[in-house]
Design goal:
It is built from eight helices and four strands; from the N terminus they run H-H-H-E-E-E-E-H-H-H-H-H. It is mostly helical and 258 residues long. It has two domains: 1-77; 82-258, no CATH class. Strands 1-4 form a two-stranded antiparallel sheet. Helix 5 (177-192) runs antiparallel to helix 6, helix 6 packs antiparallel against helix 7 (219-235) and helix 7 (219-235) packs antiparallel against helix 8. The protein is globular. The relative contact order is 0.09.
């Protein structure tokens, strides 16, 4: 979608203007398409969460322990009007985040108080939710639109362990990409909605893409990460954008697309 908007707008401005107008139109069209795609994906996430809540409600009767029933009751609370980052706390790259015995350096993530209004934040870590020994194998696999609140205690343990170990697996091919995307959602919110120009967020996107990109056939990982990298470098100003984006795409983009 971003490419479509960019090409259409650039073509129109090229026809009625000149090269520089077309170049500006291409950049604006890319950003507009990316923002629209972001909100459409969030809408799909809400539909998936409703399905998960319905399924969990059916499974809850007579099978969940008391602590899980408490979590279900909280999920059934009335939806409140949305407020910007209401109930969220951001932990930046200069801070340290400690939860359930895990110490996370350079966290770059959100934590929540467990009472987020609609539409919530799937990446936010709620410290009140139960965490168990990290799940392994099939039990650790996540769905496409994952949400920290809906993970099993073992999956939460696996996610926190991955964060605490630096988010760089020795063998990236063994990592379920759901964990990488769950962390990515927090960066996405920080850059798109808060418009944080911190270059360390961009660098984290670059390093994650370089580490996990070559080991997977997932086009979603490359597409979403490259588009967010494009937007984050744009937020840092014209000079940074001209320096970072074309150089990085030329050096790494073609190789990652194989």
């Amino acid at each position: 979608m971003p490419w479509m908007f960019a090409i259409i707008l650039a073509t129109i401005l090229w026809y009625f203007g000149d090269f520089f107008a077309a170049l500006a139109g291409f950049a604006f069209g890319w950003i507009l398409g990316f923002v629209i795609r972001f909100f459409l994906r969030r809408e799909r996430e809400q539909i998936e969460r409703k399905k998960q809540r319905s399924r969990r409600s059916k499974e809850a009767a007579g099978r969940r322990p008391p602590i899980q029933r408490a979590s279900t009751r909280r999920e059934r609370q009335p939806v409140l009007p949305p407020k910007k980052d209401d109930g969220l706390k951001w932990f930046g790259p200069s801070e340290k985040f400690k939860v359930h015995g895990y110490s996370i350096e350079r966290p770059m993530l959100y934590s929540s108080n467990g009472r987020l209004p609609w539409p919530g934040e799937p990446s936010a870590i709620d410290p009140s939710l139960p965490v168990a020994r990290p799940a392994r194998g099939e039990a650790a696999r996540l769905g496409y639109y994952c949400n920290f609140d809906y993970l099993t205690p073992g999956q939460r343990g696996a996610y926190l362990e991955w964060l605490a170990q630096g988010r760089r697996d020795a063998d990236p091919a063994e990592r379920d990409l759901g964990y990488v995307f769950l962390f990515f959602y927090g960066l996405e919110r920080r850059i798109l909605l808060v418009r944080d120009p911190d270059s360390r967020l961009r660098q984290e996107i670059v390093e994650l893409l370089e580490h996990y990109g070559p080991s997977t056939r997932s086009r979603s990982l490359r597409t979403y990460f490259l588009e967010l990298l494009h937007f984050s470098s744009y937020l840092e100003g014209t000079e940074v954008y001209r320096e970072v984006w074309p150089k990085w795409l030329t050096a790494h983009g073609a190789k990652l697309d194989g």
